[in-house]
């Protein structure tokens, strides 16, 4: 279980819907638009916190759903209560400061960041930017289009 995931920056992210806080239906539609499955997911919104319950096919899918929801303008927290029911259960995710290099980590984009710069910082090799890009598909459609405050999945070195 991923648990509570803080995104901190409610005023950044992709605008979904017309109000300051997107509805559960708008968030479900957003997940579908970025190519993530929504069958079996229950999404609830309370202020700037999104709670998602249900099941996913893999740990990777679970993480992508949480990140996609958290990168929406008006959302600062995702309470991930989904279960992985498929066969691809990776190791559970821990807070960034406790994550070993063998697990998926998360990076909040800062001003001036590029995928190459993040890859150099995380892997020691800027040419590994494609691994970060691939780990964040389908939310990322272009490796040059990231923005400050966005949270990215960083796959394990390997």
Summarize the structure.
The protein has four helices and six strands. The chain has 158 residues and is α+β, with helices and mostly antiparallel strands.
Radius of gyration: 15 Å
Helix percent band: 10-25%
Major sheet characteristics: 4 strands, mixed
What's the level 1 CATH class of the largest domain?
A: Alpha Beta
Second-tier CATH architecture of the largest domain: 2-Layer Sandwich
User: Number of folding domains?
Assistant: 2
Give the low-confidence spans.
Answer: 88-100
Order of helices and strands: EHEEHEEHHE
Q: So what's the oligomer here?
A: single chain
Proportion of residues in extended strands: 15-25%
**Alpha carbon gap, first and last residue:** 23 Å
Overall 3D shape: globular
CATH topology of the largest domain, anyone? Histidine-containing Protein, Chain: A
Task: Give a structural overview.
By secondary structure, the chain is an alpha+beta fold. It folds into two domains: 3-88, Histidine-containing Protein, Chain: A (2-Layer Sandwich), CATH 3.30.1340; 99-154, LysM domain (Membrane-bound Lytic Murein Transglycosylase D, Chain A, Roll). It is 24% helix and 25% strand. The chain contains four helices and six strands; from the N terminus they run βαββαββααβ. The strands form two sheets. The protein has a four-stranded mixed beta sheet with strand order 1-4-3-2, covered by helices on one side. Strand 3 (49-58), helix 2 and strand 4 form a beta-alpha-beta unit. Helix 3 packs across helix 4 (129-135). The radius of gyration is 15 Å and the shape is globular. Residues 82-92 have a biased composition (Polar residues). Residues 105-154 form the LysM domain. InterPro entries: Bact_Kbp (IPR052196), BON_dom (IPR007055), LysM (IPR018392), LysM_dom_sf (IPR036779), Transpt-assoc_nodulatn_dom_bac (IPR014004). It holds the Pfam family BON.
């Amino acid at each position: 279980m991923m648990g509570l995931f803080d995104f901190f920056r409610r005023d950044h992210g992709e605008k979904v819907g017309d109000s300051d806080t997107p509805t559960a239906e708008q968030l479900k539609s957003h997940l579908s638009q970025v190519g993530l499955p929504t069958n079996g997911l229950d999404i609830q919104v309370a202020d700037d916190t999104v709670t998602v319950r249900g099941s996913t096919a893999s740990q990777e899918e679970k993480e992508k759903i949480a990140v996609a929801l958290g990168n929406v303008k008006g959302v600062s927290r995702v309470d991930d209560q989904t279960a992985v029911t498929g066969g691809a259960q990776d190791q559970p995710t821990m807070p960034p400061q406790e994550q070993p290099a063998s697990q998926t980590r998360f990076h909040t984009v800062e001003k001036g960041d590029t995928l190459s710069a993040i890859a150099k910082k995380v892997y020691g090799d800027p040419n590994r930017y494609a691994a970060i890009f691939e780990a964040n598909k389908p939310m990322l459609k272009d490796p040059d289009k990231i923005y400050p405050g966005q949270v990215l999945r960083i796959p394990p070195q390997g």
